[in-house]
Amino acid sequence: MKTPSFQSKFHRRAFLAGAAATTFTIVKPSLVCGSAANSAIALGMIGCGGRGNWIAKLFPANADYRWVACADYFQDRVDAFGSKNAVPADRRYTTLSCHKKLLESPVDAVVIESPPYFHPEHAAAAVEAGKHVFLAKPIAIDVPGCLSIAESGRKAASKNLVFLVDFQTRANELYREAARRVHAGDIGRIVCAESHYPWAGGTGGINGKTPEERMRYWHNTLEFCGDVIVEQDIHALDVATWFLHADPVAAVGRGGRTLRKVGNTWDHFSITYTFPNDVILTHSSIKMIPGCKDEIRCRVFGSDGMVGSDYYTEVWIRGRKPYEGGSVGNLYTTGAENNIVEFHRCITTRDYTNPTVAPSVRSNLTAVLGRMAAYSGKPVTWDEMLKTGEKLEPDLTGLKT
Question: Mean pLDDT in the chain?
Answer without folding.
Answer: 91
